[in-house]
Design goal:
The chain has eight helices and nine strands. It has two domains: 80 residues, Winged helix-like DNA-binding domain superfamily/Winged helix DNA-binding domain (Arc Repressor Mutant, subunit A, Orthogonal Bundle), CATH 1.10.10.10; 164 residues, GAF domain (Beta-Lactamase). The N terminus is likely disordered. Helix 2 packs across helix 3 and helix 5 runs antiparallel to helix 8. It is of the alpha+beta class. The protein is globular and about 60 Å long. The strands form two sheets. Strands 6-5-4-9-8-7 form a six-stranded antiparallel beta sheet, sandwiched between helices. Strands 1-3-2 form a three-stranded antiparallel beta sheet. It is 39% helix and 17% strand.
Length: 278
């Protein structure tokens, strides 16, 4: 069987073990397969997949994959082209994702402070959340001074390559870091466990992370974990083009973002009867 990769990942990265869930209840195989399919299609972005590709990637019979796809097409979770041979993520995935953002009290609480940071600095400001080995972008305020790079709500990046991810990894013991080598996005990406651990030690001492063209060439990021829960799951960051990053501007970015973090941590919901999601 030919091995398929998606965004540099092997199919195994999309599989969940057919074992007990966190609540001690055994997974429902059909439900797990449906989620794996949707994750795979979402990860492909604007690259539609063919039936055999999906069957091979998830290790299921072609006939079973076809039946699953048709069910999801009928419910709007998957879309197909006019020939019926190409498949992509459907509009209901967007609607569900939007509902997630709208219903999350911490995302709602952070948004005004992202506006404040954007107005004060004139740079791109992000909020992200740790999800396994990746960080998912939950909110972004774009700079008007340069073209968009990686800042898109819903985008996922490996935690080891960006300011958001490194700020959150530094809140955890190094024993939780996976063995390398890690995926490289630029020549500056830290691809070994040892180099990443050394960088995270600096993050803990400094109090914030710095991504110097590790995720995107030409862009430097500064990340700040939001410690309204332990360990922190969310972080904010400021991204700036290297060409505009003077020592004075860097100092101001750090000062403003520290202040924004303090305001968020002082006001973010943590009580009052709201649901505490895990």
């Amino acid at each position: 069987m030919r091995t398929t990769t998606v965004n540099g990942r092997a199919p195994a990265d999309y599989h969940r073990p057919m074992s007990e869930t966190g609540g001690g209840v055994r997974e429902v195989k059909s439900a797990a397969r449906t989620v794996e399919l949707l994750e795979l299609l979402a990860a492909r972005g604007d690259r539609p997949a063919r039936l055999q590709e999906l069957a091979d990637a998830l290790g299921v019979p072609r006939s079973s994959m076809y039946a699953l796809l048709q069910t999801l097409i009928g419910r709007g979770w998957v879309r197909t082209d006019i020939t019926g041979s190409l498949y992509g993520i459907g509009i209901h995935a967007l609607l569900t994702g939007t509902s997630y953002l709208d219903s999350d009290p911490r995302v709602r609480a952070v948004r005004p402070y992202l506006d404040e940071a954007s107005e004060a600095l004139g740079e791109t400001i992000h909020m992200g959340r740790l999800d396994g080995r990746d960080v998912a972008y939950l909110a972004t305020r774009e700079s008007h001074e340069y073209l968009r790079t990686i800042s898109r709500v819903g985008r996922r990046l490996p935690a080891h390559v960006g300011a958001l991810g490194k700020a959150l990894l530094a809140e955890r013991p190094d024993t939780e870091l996976p063995e390398g080598p890690y995926e490289s996005l630029t020549p500056n990406t830290r691809t070994t466990r040892e180099s990443l651990a050394a960088d995270l030690a600096s993050v803990r001492t400094r109090g914030y992370s710095v991504d110097r063209e590790e995720g995107v060439l030409g862009i430097v990021g500064f990340g700040f974990a939001l410690r309204y829960e332990t360990p922190a799951q969310d972080a904010i960051s400021c991204s700036v083009p290297v060409a505009r990053l003077t020592p004075e501007h860097e100092e101001r970015i750090v000062a403003v973002m520290r202040e924004i973090r303090a305001k968020i941590e002082a006001t973010a919901p943590g009580a009052g009867g709201s649901a505490h999601w895990r």
